[in-house]
Design a protein that fits this description.
The protein contains twelve helices and nine strands. The chain is an alpha/beta fold. Strands 1-2-4-5-6-7-8-9 form an eight-stranded mixed barrel, surrounded by four helices. Strand 1 and strand 2 form a beta hairpin. The two termini are 38 Å apart. The structure holds ligand C2E and magnesium ion (3 copies). The site of one magnesium ion has 4 residues, from loops. This is Phosphodiesterase.
């Protein structure tokens, strides 16, 4: 069906077409070739234990190095990939590349940390999902504890009955799940008690307003209280200021990610930060933004 749609789309393509639409079609064509042409790579953003500043995890984030346009961010191409039915193959590539990277860090003597991978609803809901993940882990001789699967609250909303079964199987395998972008998805809190769900990520939209915005502060505190009583680990996203850090630390949030500590980094930069032979990692890593 996707093929037919694509053909039709090109049949109606004319120079009179709005530039945006033309650009999207172009993007779609190029996205189909991106995997084969090896244009994807991963960057990794550290997750910090707020109390100590220690790096306890990294999150794999996908980047597309476009031959002419340079680096394209997921917000631009993930929705297109979803529309084209390409997202599963891309997610599988990300999983394989992440496990290969973990193995490479292990071989280089980098201390083992948790590595989070973002999963689309399309793949998470697929019957072959759990098997695919565990086979990728096995092929790299990695234990399930090394991986954290991030699934957004809104993606959970699209998933039906398969969710609970998938979570049960993941739990049995020892693979943990984080609910990403929590608070933005209009979803049921029932997701938080599913097996395998062990982490909750507070969306950046709430963190941005801290500490001044009293609504954001109240919502954040409520999420932290709920998370704590459910025995979940809370990770705050998008921490950019000392004041946000201080608020979250005092409110009992355990972990955080954000530009205050580190931008997403290349694998060798992560290795440099984590390698025991390097000088100790400072509590706060104020790094120079990557060149754009
Ligand atoms: P996310 O999983 O919630 O990832 C966090 C996003 O916030 C990342 O954007 C990260 O670079 C950005 N970020 C981190 N700290 C800060 C901060 O302090 N301030 C601001 N303004 N932004 C911050 P990125 O890499 O552009 O990814 C955007 C979204 O795309 C991700 O949101 C995730 O939902 C999706 N995504 C990324 N990689 C993948 C992937 O491999 N597969 C799938 N299915 N989705 C992915
Ligand atoms: Mg994420
Ligand atoms: Mg998120
Ligand atoms: Mg987010």
């Amino acid at each position: 069906a996707a093929k037919t749609e694509e053909r039709n789309a090109f049949r109606f393509y004319t120079p009179l077409m709005h530039a945006d639409t033309r650009q999207r079609l172009q993007l779609a064509t190029e996205l189909r070739q991106a995997l084969a042409r090896n244009e994807f790579h991963l960057v990794f953003q550290p997750s910090i234990e707020l109390r100590t500043g220690r790096i306890v995890a990294v999150e794999a984030l996908l980047r597309w190095q476009h031959p002419e346009r340079g680096e394209v961010l997921p917000a631009e191409f993930i929705p297109v990939a979803e529309g084209l039915g390409l997202i599963r193959r891309i997610d599988e590539w990300v999983m394989q590349a992440t496990c290969a990277q973990i193995q490479a860090w292990d071989l280089a003597g980098v201390p083992p940390i948790r590595v989070a991978v973002n999963i689309s609803a399309r793949w998470f809901g697929h019957p072959a999902f759990v098997d695919g993940v565990s086979r990728t882990l096995q092929s790299r001789q990695l234990s399930a504890q090394r991986l954290l699967l991030e699934i957004t609250e809104s993606a959970m909303l699209q998933l039906g009955d398969a969710t609970e079964r998938t979570m049960r199987t993941l739990h049995a395998l020892g693979i943990a799940v984080a609910i990403d972008d929590f608070g933005t998805g209009y979803s049921s809190m029932a997701y938080l008690k599913l097996p395998a769900v062990a982490y909750l990520k507070i969306d950046r939209s709430f963190v941005t307003g801290l500490p001044g915005d009293t609504n954001d502060a109240a919502i954040t505190e409520a999420m932290l209280a709920m998370s704590r009583s459910l025995g979940l680990i809370t990770i705050a996203e998008g921490i950019e200021t000392e004041a946000q850090h201080d608020f979250l630390l005092r409110a009992g949030c355990m972990e955080g990610q954000g530009y205050l500590y580190s931008y997403p980094l290349k694998p060798d930069e992560i290795q440099h930060l984590l390698c025991p032979n390097q000088p100790p990692v400072p509590a706060r890593l104020r790094l120079v933004p990557p060149k754009r």
